[in-house]
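INFO  loader      accepted 1 record
INFO  loader      residues=119
INFO  predictor   begin
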Amino acid sequence: MHYFDHEKLDVYQAAIEFVVLANTVIENLPRGRAYLADQLQRAAASILLNIAEGAGEYSINEKLRFYRMAKRSATECAGIFDICQRLQIITEPYHLKGREFLTRIVAMLIKMAKALDKS
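INFO  predictor   done
INFO  writer      dumping tokens
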């Protein structure tokens, strides 16, 4: 049963799954990489929270603003995953799965924003 508008969105569900994956990655980062862990934790949560806030807005401009912020946070997470890959502190399966989630999330957010722009 859904109680809030955002819970019905596929992009929100994908964002939850990404937060879970990001948390697993964070738990496996080596000592001395707290700056990456903190940044990834904040950016992953920001995707989810901005989607929820946007879904709860009535104003199209406000919805767009929140969805764009969510997209920016998703691209930030992609950058963090790339850093982790280049530093060889993330396994390739986690890197690929993270990029898969993020690509899907960004594509959905772009589609949602374009649909709102037309209305």
